[in-house]
Specification:
Number of strands: 11
Distance between the termini: 32 Å
Structural class: alpha/beta
Order of helices and strands: HEHEHEHHHEHEHEEHEHEHEEHHH
Oligomer: single chain
């Protein structure tokens, strides 16, 4: 499972694993892939520094990366309080009424919500980068397209490759023009923010659009056979995120959420604006249904929605209110039916990849032997 890109990065398998959990990211790297830690939940630089230091100590000198959420344009001087002030009172009432309808308790006095989408803001994201570039990052990925030009230059000066997610060939071309090194072709099936084009269609379109830049296939990939399909479409690797949520190393502290993920089928997700204001694939719940109901107020644009629902989601997760409990996850959730360690997942991926390659070799061999 080697490509030019995996050889360039010095990894055994062309598998890039995105995760919010440092232990999972480190395990992915140790298993032969490239673990990429999601930074969006780190509102305090010291917390990110602590976890990157831990990863540095637990990756055996092997490469790893960081995923940030930054707009391509600089947005300076906007504070969290400025954004909070833009949220309509009617939307706040809707949150209060929805939580009350499901009997969700309040947080304890002085307890702050632990889930806030603030990494998009210039001050937060740049503070994350100041910490990140104190570490030997092999890859900096951005979920909102290419980072600002000065960030791309800074990464390159640091010897760090820059990747950006794209949901269309048009977006991918813009990414290439911005000087990034790798395009992640994220299909409709993926968890989190996605476009409207399926991975099987999107990957070869983006490969053609940005050639010779390397492309990673993402969305709906959770088996070695699917990795082989992605490479056959021209990708130089795969970007996997959802698959790691139910690994033993993952830090999901909610047994109820883990049980929901293990029981879910591929049809139990929905693309909804309920989480951040942008379409994001996640488990379908009473919470997503409420926000997607035409009778409701509708989600606010990003980043207003993320700040609006931050405390509510913390309460739902803390008290494990099952009807409302969800998480971003892709359609591959239907394969996530058991708790396994990251290494066991890799063993399964590599075995499936070998089966697929052997199958194609047999088909190709028969075709060569058959007379015209």
């Amino acid at each position: 499972m080697q490509t030019e890109l995996s050889q360039q990065l010095g990894i055994e398998y062309a598998v890039f694993g995105f995760t919010p959990f440092p232990a999972v990211a480190a395990a992915i790297t140790r298993a032969g892939g490239l673990g990429v830690l999601g930074a969006v939940r780190y509102t305090e630089p010291d917390a990110l520094r602590r976890d990157l230091n831990w990863m540095q100590e637990h990756t055996d000198g092997l490469p790893y990366g960081l995923d940030v959420v930054m707009p391509a344009k600089k947005v300076e001087g906007v504070t969290e309080a400025d954004v909070e002030a833009m949220i309509p009172a009617g939307h706040r009432r809707f949150v209060t009424e929805t939580l009350a309808r499901h009997g969700v308790p309040a947080l304890d006095d002085g307890e702050r919500s632990g889930w806030r989408i603030t990494g998009w803001m210039e001050a937060v994201a740049r503070a994350q980068l100041d910490v990140a570039f104190d570490h030997p990052l092999a890859l900096l990925a951005n979920a909102l397209g290419p980072p600002p030009p000065d960030v791309v230059r800074r990464a390159h000066d640091h010897g760090t490759l820059v990747a950006a997610l794209a949901g269309s060939a048009r977006h991918a071309r813009r990414h290439a023009e911005a000087g990034i090194d790798i395009v992640v072709a994220q299909g409709y099936e993926a968890g989190g923010h996605t476009g409207e084009i399926a991975t099987m269609v999107l990957t070869p379109e983006i490969v053609r659009a940005v050639d010779p830049l390397p492309v990673l296939a993402a969305g709906g990939i959770g088996s070695g056979e699917q990795i082989a399909a992605g490479l056959a479409l021209g990708a130089q690797g795969v970007w996997l995120g959802s698959l790691w949520l139910t690994t033993e190393e993952a830090g999901l502290t909610s047994p109820a959420l883990t049980a929901k993920l293990l029981a879910a089928g591929s049809g139990d997700t929905v693309r909804s604006r309920a989480l951040t204001g942008k379409p994001a694939r996640q488990l379908r719940t009473a919470w997503t249904d409420a926000w997607d109901d035409p009778a409701g107020p509708g989600a606010l644009p990003m980043p207003l929605q993320g700040l609006l629902v931050a405390e509510a989601l913390t309460r739902i997760q803390k008290y494990e209110v099952e009807p409302l409990l969800g998480t971003p996850v892709g359609q591959i959730v239907g394969r996530m039916d058991s708790r396994r360690g990251v290494q066991a997942v890799f063993d399964d991926l590599t075995a499936g990849f070998e089966r697929a390659v052997d199958r194609l070799d047999r088909i190709a061999g028969r075709a060569r032997r058959e007379p015209d």
